């Protein structure tokens, strides 16, 4: 095993994995993290902590992940190329693994113009593919990027990356996935699935290239709370497309939040049957207390214990 | 060419407040092509400055001139007589021209009347678009002739990010996603397999813009 | 008591304003003595610098006469000059000059009466506005 993490064990054993997103606070308030972690810890295998998502300044992912480790809960730390150069990211990886963090999720990051510090300078010293390659180099070759600076101690690391089945042209993004796999990514989490047909089309192309055998693919899901939320997500969030039929269903529902959870559970049931799919990643930011209910309704409880 | 745009008039007037006699020097190369700093624009700006000053009850004597190319020391030398007579210089060339003038006439304050914007192409009359960031290591052979350093908001080298939607960039739906365009171009020229190649991390700190001010030398041409 | 007599410069194109001005004269319309007509082959020939020079050299108001929409004998001269007039208006705002001092008007070559009316109106408007602050 590359890291010995709970997430890695579960995926390696062929169990359908479940992870969830924990939104970090804009204040240095550890209790927010602890409260959310309590809601999630029995219901998921690992918890993803995004880093300044949407370019909005929040407590950093490493701090959030360290709090989870302290609580005995397994984190997935996010590393975002928008804000850190290769010196910082390699340094962060040494720090993270020293603190007991084993899973990392490597992403480019939303452009700073979308956030709350719009005048900031780009970093993007590496793109997400180069970052995956960099972390793989540190773990498997025992050197920093460039190959000459040795790292003596072993780095246990399970490397994740993102994929978007809803972008176009589809073929181009499938090439991107293949490149991440070649660069060393161990698991992939996709953008949240609302358009099931499109997702299955993408999975078909992924299977055609045999990519599902070289990486653990986990589908993203998000419960909708209201029709307005759905419309707003379509507007604001890069890479997101929610079909009109779903928005309609939400608009007509008596209790939209329950309808949203129902839709989410239906999707999960369907996703469990998709060949090549190895798990789920649930994002319900601001709504993390309902994730347990979703996992239970989808028949995915109890979660297996760590080995 | 270098694309530039004139600074707002009140900013320029702010620079010129202490002076009674200045030289206004334009450039007939890039700045003229953008209709921002050529001979014609020298005349327009000089008239505007004089009228604004007159309205404020002051005068300003402006010696108007224009270099063929303000980044060439030989052309800048030709300004000597005019500069000898003046208290300050206002240059409406790009940042390079301003600095070349400031270097030659180092005991006279030199002010920029222009904001230098980018290296670009004329998309159509009156519209200029950024195309190159002088990164020092051209990879246009890998991208079908479209530059991701200049045209991708995140300078990605291995394909688009997840925010690319309907061929548009996540920063603004008016901005095309250059990786989508690169894909289409490579398909059109039968080179889409190039996209499967991993492009390693760029050497920003040694071979590019972040390595400090760069110098280019041709030994065979040095005098 | 000195009374202010506005000086107006009118750029008149060969196919519209210039002929209309001539007609106005023949009709007996009185045009102000302080009107100066500058003949141009097409309104599209009038550039930003010409208007600025007119103002800097003492015009209280500037009129530019062009053919009606779709009637420009050079096809797009009247549209080109519109964009330039807009540019000068922006500059005038930066300088602190009232935008009414510059106006683009469309007139048919046959309409001497309209030409005279436009000039008269501008003259009265400028009497109220006062002399150009950069005169």
Characterise this structure.
The complex is a heterotrimer of chains A (307), B (223) and C (135). With 307 residues, chain A is α/β, with parallel strands linked by helices. Chain A is 41% helix and 14% strand. In chain A, helix 7 links the parallel strand 6 (187-192) and strand 7 (216-221). The radius of gyration of chain A is 18 Å and the shape is globular. With 223 residues, chain B is of the alpha/beta class. Chain B folds into two domains: 2-118, 3-Layer(aba) Sandwich (Rossmann fold); 134-196, no CATH class. Chain B has nine helices and nine strands. Chain C has 135 residues and is of the alpha/beta class. Chain C is 41% helix and 17% strand. Chains in contact: A-B, B-C. The A-B interface holds A 81-82, 86, 108-111, 113-114, 122, 124-130, 133-134, 145, 162-164, 167-169, 171-173, 175-176, 178-179, 182-183, 191, 238-239, 241 and B 153-167, 170-172, 179-180, 183, 195-196, 198-202, 204.
Instruction: State the helical fraction of chain C.
Output: 40-55%
- For the secondary structure, the number of strands of chain A is 8
The overall pLDDT of chain A, averaged over residues, is 95
Our Rg estimate of chain A from Cα atoms comes to 18 Å
The termini of chain A sit apart by 12 Å
């Amino acid at each position: 095993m590359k890291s010995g993490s709970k997430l890695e064990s579960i995926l390696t054993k062929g169990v359908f994995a479940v992870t969830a997103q924990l939104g970090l606070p804009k204040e240095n308030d550890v209790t927010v993290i602890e409260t959310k972690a309590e809601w999630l810890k029995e219901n998921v295998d690992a918890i993803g902590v995004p880093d300044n998502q949407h370019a909005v300044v929040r407590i950093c992912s490493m701090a959030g992940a360290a709090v989870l480790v302290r609580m005995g809960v397994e984190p997935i730390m996010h590393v975002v190329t928008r804000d850190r150069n290769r010196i910082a990211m390699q340094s962060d990886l040494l720090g993270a693994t020293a603190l007991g963090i084993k899973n990392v999720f490597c992403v480019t990051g939303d452009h700073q113009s979308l956030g709350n510090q719009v005048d900031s300078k780009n970093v993007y010293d590496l793109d997400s593919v180069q970052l995956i390659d960099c972390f793989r180099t540190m773990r498997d070759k025992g050197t920093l990027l460039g190959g000459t600076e040795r790292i003596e101690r072993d780095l246990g690391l399970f490397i994740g990356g993102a994929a978007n089945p809803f972008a176009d042209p589809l073929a181009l993004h499938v090439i991107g996935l293949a490149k991440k796999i070649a660069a060393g990514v161990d698991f992939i989490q996709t953008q949240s699935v609302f358009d099931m047909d499109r997702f299955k089309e993408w999975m078909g192309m992924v299977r055609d290239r045999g990519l599902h055998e070289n990486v653990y693919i986990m589908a993203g899901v998000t419960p909708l709370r209201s029709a307005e939320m759905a419309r707003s997500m379509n507007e604001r969030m890069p890479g997101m497309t929610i079909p009109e039929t779903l928005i309609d269903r939400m608009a007509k529902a008596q209790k939209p939040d329950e309808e949203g959870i129902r839709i989410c559970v239906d999707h999960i049931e369907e996703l469990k049957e998709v060949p090549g799919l190895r798990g789920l990643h649930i994002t319900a930011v601001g709504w993390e207390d309902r994730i347990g209910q979703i996992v239970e309704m989808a028949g995915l409880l109890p979660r297996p214990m760590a080995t | 060419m270098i694309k530039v745009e004139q600074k707002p008039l009140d900013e320029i007037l702010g620079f010129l407040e202490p002076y009674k006699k200045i030289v206004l020097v334009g450039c007939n190369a890039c700045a003229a092509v953008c209709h921002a700093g050529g001979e014609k624009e020298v005349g327009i700006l000089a008239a505007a400055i004089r009228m604004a000053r007159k309205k404020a009850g002051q005068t300003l004597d402006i010696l108007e001139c224009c270099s063929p190319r303000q980044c060439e020391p030989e052309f800048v030398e030709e300004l000597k007589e005019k500069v000898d007579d003046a208290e300050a210089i206002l240059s409406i060339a790009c940042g390079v021209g301003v600095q070349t003038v400031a270097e030659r006439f180092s005991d006279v304050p030199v002010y920029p009347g222009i904001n230098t914007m980018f290296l670009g192409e004329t998309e159509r009359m009156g519209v200029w678009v950024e195309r190159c960031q002088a990164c020092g290591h051209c990879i246009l052979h890998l991208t079908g002739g479209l530059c991701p350093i200049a045209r991708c908001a995140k300078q990605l080298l291995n394909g688009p990010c997840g925010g690319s939607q309907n061929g548009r960039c996540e920063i603004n739906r008016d901005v095309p996603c250059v990786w989508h365009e690169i894909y289409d171009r490579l398909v059109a020229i039968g080179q889409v397999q190039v996209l499967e190649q991993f492009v390693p991390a760029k050497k920003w700190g040694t071979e590019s813009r972040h390595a400090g001010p760069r110098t280019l030398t041709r030994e065979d041409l040095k005098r | 008591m000195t009374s202010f007599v506005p000086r107006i410069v009118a750029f008149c194109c060969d196919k519209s304003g210039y002929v209309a001005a001539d007609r106005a004269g023949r009709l007996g319309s009185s045009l102000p003595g302080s009107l100066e007509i500058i003949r141009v082959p097409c309104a599209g020939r009038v550039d930003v610098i010409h208007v600025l020079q007119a103002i800097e050299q003492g015009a209280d108001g500037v009129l530019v006469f062009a053919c009606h929409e779709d009637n420009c004998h050079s096809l797009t001269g009247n549209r080109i000059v519109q964009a330039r007039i807009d540019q000068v208006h922006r500059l005038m705002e930066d300088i602190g000059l009232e935008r009414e001092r510059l106006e683009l008007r469309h007139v048919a070559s046959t309409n001497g009466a309209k030409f005279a009316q436009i000039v008269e109106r501008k003259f009265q408007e400028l009497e109220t506005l006062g002399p150009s602050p950069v005169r």
